[in-house]
Design goal:
The protein has one helix spanning 32-45, and strands at residues 11-14, 27-30, 54-58, 64-68. With 96 residues, the protein is α+β, with helices and mostly antiparallel strands. Strand 3 and strand 4 form a beta hairpin. The longest helix is centred in the middle third of the chain and has 14 residues, at 32-45.
């Protein structure tokens, strides 16, 4: 996993307005030219990636922001990715 924070250029995340209904959790605005340029650069530096995952986070000051989710599943000794759902215990790991 890459430890460097990658912020999303051209994407602004805002808390919902006070009068917004409860089901609205955030507002997202795109400065289209800036965002498109950033996505193009991201794609060039991440060849073969099919998905770009972004997390909406809240800073200590309470402001929302968008950050690239760089998490990747660990590869096993054979170089394959573990099945969806994460950890699969070996039979001897079961406590009963």
């Amino acid at each position: 996993m890459n430890q460097d924070k990658q912020f999303v250029d051209g994407m602004i995340v805002k808390k919902p307005k006070d009068q917004a209904p409860d089901f609205i959790k955030a507002g997202i605005s795109f400065k289209i030219d800036e965002f498109a340029m950033w996505v193009g650069q991201w794609k060039k530096s991440n060849p073969g990636k099919e998905w770009l995952n972004i997390e909406v986070k809240e800073s200590k000051s309470g402001k929302y922001y968008a950050e690239v989710d760089t998490w990747e599943p660990n590869k096993d000794m054979n170089g394959s990715t573990p099945p969806a759902g994460g950890y699969q215990p070996e039979v001897e790991d079961v406590p009963f």
